[in-house]
């Protein structure tokens, strides 16, 4: 089977690997260089902590298991070229301040526990034993030992290198321009800036541009951009030991039509810098680095860990999360256009969910049994199709 | 009265301020340094007065005149120690206070017109051993000589490319150190071809010519060898510079085998030209030229409405060109026009000086085979210790032609200097190996945070409200 | 002594009187004058190295002298990441070298 993948981000890279290792003939195209878009513009958190019970949590747990084995597999498959992609199973600590937040967090964690997540309630003292720099205002916390992190750009390149070793071809600087159809109207490949490419299946893994790409191919997909910004500090002696989050994401902050939200994630990286995230804005593909947004991120990070006020910020960066209307990834075949597939819409979790997505997609495409049901992620599901 | 904000108080910024004010604007000049003057007129602080500081400078009288005029001008405010760290949709975000402090005052300017005059800094090509203590950028050694009265060494080698090396040698000599030699990578034939072509152009720029002749006289007086077609191709020492290897170069800057000579030295000043400080211009949205300077029209307007640029960020041309461009930019930013009689002299000077600058650029252009003097172990990114071999490994493991990914995989350019020192070199080394010599994805010039800022200072910058529901943490 | 101050007595610019100050560098007293930067005081005493690079542990000090290269970072009065070449020294400043930053590895 010949598969053409559009997009060499982490999702396209993971799919290329899973398909190629199953014997498919894989070509990946990207209009830029691989790992040059969203997958190099975020953090690499592999989280269960932020997910409520449901299909996304199931996919996250499945993926986390795969990430743990990828650590050694990718090193072997790339002949040691990617001995490390900074995989760190360091666990996460979610800290609540105030009674309402503590109660919401405790309910959230309880539900997760019932779904099998290792979510350990902590007293303030226990929390401080894990993270001594937590603010005095903290009233409770939950420890999620399963949370992990990777360096997403290296991980993407490692997956791609492995795919290449399994026979996949990667064509950079090759932009999709339209569909190739046979006499019966079936999709039999794509046209690109570098000529036509035939394929039995075309997989859209174009991140936040997936909606545009689907349209170019004559299909409809409700996936678009949701902007996010992050801060990076100078290297510093380690004072943060887990991924540390506030509870902004727990329980819905009421939707009041304004266009900015931030929720705090603080983590130190293998190189000694600290990443501080992040914001969410629905502003299309406007890449401006907004000072007001950075300031808000800074304020919340300091509220969580006051010592960070002295940290030196050396860079701000950001990208566009591939956002689907109902917040669930889109994995599977287009309901209308034969030969067209999707693996996209992972929003703020695409790094974490990539390996699971790839395994499920590859199995489904090649007619093999899948490790979990793909129904919740079906591109034809009503919650995705209905007009907002 | 329109308000004009000028970033940079070097020659270009000072000239812009005076001419904007002369046209009737209210002017604010911002500079990170704690006094005006920029790189060219870098001087001792007021706490260290002296009788003849002018001996260390060219055009000192001009500078004094400008400085006094500015101080006396009720429509001009100079804010020193003003670190411009971001430009966001026309708003200029500044921290006022000591360098890398933590409690600086945060200010935001929203001027009617903005003049960018942020200048340039040394472009330094890596050489094996260039990260040893005792190696300085050429401009750095000069800045220490002028601004600190420190001699960087006893036996000093000056090497690289460009007439600026002469100025550096003169400054180093004036600290009492001895200059072992000045090694200019471009070969004499090339220098003569471009320098001696159209000599009337040189004659039309008397100040520059006088300055160069002055430096040459210093070299002669101190019996300092000026050797063209040669480069420092290695620097040796245990914990600090002990010697250098000087090699003859061919026309492409490839060292000629067998020509190596080892010289004893305890300090090395390296400079291979200048890199413009583009981060604020990029943050403001200004288009860059193919040669990676800020693109300006005849009125010094950038591609962004109401944003002007002058001085070295628009092209390397020296102090007189910076002054002319600054005067034009300030005048137009304040609402004047290029045809106004007030600008006639400046416009004519700019024309002549630009031609002269192009000539210099051609004479000292970096040779395409300079990288052949690197070894695998040579550090390219000093902040993150990324070597030539590390870059090659990142490139071969990923086969990538994407700068963003290569930076993230190798860590080159991710340290505190944010690629200011290594960026252009990393791009050159990687694109030489990229298919079609193309590097996609990013530029090493983009630095949305133009100066480091403490998180606590950033938190105090603004008030905003919260909004849409958050789902997940990624 | 290799790197050194230009001796005021023979300096052609004829420096006028300056105000002596003392700073503590890793607990050691260093003499300077008001108006010098921290890097200026270090170099005047032929101290070329005050930092090690984070990965290779290579010696680093001042390189660009104008605030661009960030090779010269020091801790001043407890505050990290201060460019020694940009910070004017004040009498009694406590300067420490930046310790090795973390490397968690995997
Ligand atoms: C600030 C921020 C923080 C984040 N933090 C996390 C986190 O901690 N954990 C986590 O799991 N996720 C996180 N994410 C989300 C994660 O980065 C994304 O979900 C993931 O990278 C998406 O990968 P992708 O392969 O789908 O898209 P991308 O990486 O964007 O790849 C898509 C590719 O398609 C290419 N393409 C587009 N159009 C065309 C065309 N017409 N022709 C050819 N090629 C085309 C693009 O060039 C691009 O390379 C974060 C995102 C942001 C923005
Ligand atoms: C160290 C050094 C020494 C030099 N010496 C000579 C010499 O002797 N002879 C010669 O012909 N040329 C010299 N040059 C070249 C010199 O750049 C020009 O001749 C001249 O100074 C250019 O003037 P300018 O106004 O364009 O920029 P500059 O003089 O560089 O002035 C730019 C100003 O902008 C300020 N600035 C930049 N970014 C920010 C920010 N984000 N926030 C606040 N302020 C900012 C800087 O502090 C600086 O004062 C030197 C260059 C350097 C780097
Ligand atoms: S010496 Fe380069 S920043 Fe201080």
Enumerate how many helices of chain C there are, as a single number: 1
Strand runs of chain C, count: 8
Radius of gyration of chain C (Å)? 15 Å
**Average pLDDT, all residues of chain A:** 94
Largest sheet properties of chain C: 5 strands, mixed
Helix content of chain C: under 10%
Give the helix level of chain A as a range of percent: 25-40%
Could you explain how this protein is built, in words?
Chain A is an alpha/beta fold. Chain A is built from nine helices and 19 strands. Chain A has two domains: 213 residues, 3-Layer(bba) Sandwich (FAD/NAD(P)-binding domain); 155 residues, D-Amino Acid Oxidase, Chain A, domain 2 (2-Layer Sandwich), CATH 3.30.9.10. In chain A, the strands form four sheets. Chain A has an eight-stranded mixed sheet with strand order 5-6-4-14-15-16-13-17. A six-stranded mixed sheet of chain A has the order 8-2-1-12-19-18, sandwiched between helices. In chain A, a hairpin with a 5-residue loop joins strand 15 and strand 16. The longest helix of chain A is centred in the first third of the chain and has 23 residues. Chain B is of the alpha/beta class and 474 residues long. Chain B has three domains: 205 residues, 3-Layer(bba) Sandwich (FAD/NAD(P)-binding domain), CATH 3.50.50.60; 149 residues, FAD/NAD(P)-binding domain (3-Layer(bba) Sandwich); 63 residues, Orthogonal Bundle (Arc Repressor Mutant, subunit A). In chain B, the strands form six sheets. Chain B has a five-stranded parallel sheet with strand order 3-2-1-7-19. In chain B, helix 1 crosses helix 2 and helix 3 runs parallel beside helix 4. The N and C termini of chain B lie far apart (48 Å). In chain C, 50% of the residues are buried. Chain C has a single domain, classed as Roll (Ubiquitin-like (UB roll)), CATH 3.10.20. In chain C, 7% of the residues lie in helices and 28% in strands. The C terminus of chain C is likely disordered. In chain C, strand 2 and strand 3 form a beta hairpin. Chain C has 106 residues and is mostly beta strands. Chain C is built from one helix and eight strands, in the order E-E-E-H-E-E-E-E-E. The chains are: A alpha/beta (388), B alpha/beta (474), C mainly beta (106). Chains in contact: A-B, A-C, B-C. Chains A and B meet through helix 5, strand 15, strand 16, helix 7 and strand 17 of A and helix 11, helix 12, strand 22 and helix 14 of B. Strand 10 of chain B pairs antiparallel with strand 1 of chain C, so a sheet runs across the interface. Bound molecules: flavin-adenine dinucleotide (2 copies) and FE2/S2 (inorganic) cluster. FE2/S2 (inorganic) cluster binds next to loops of chain C.
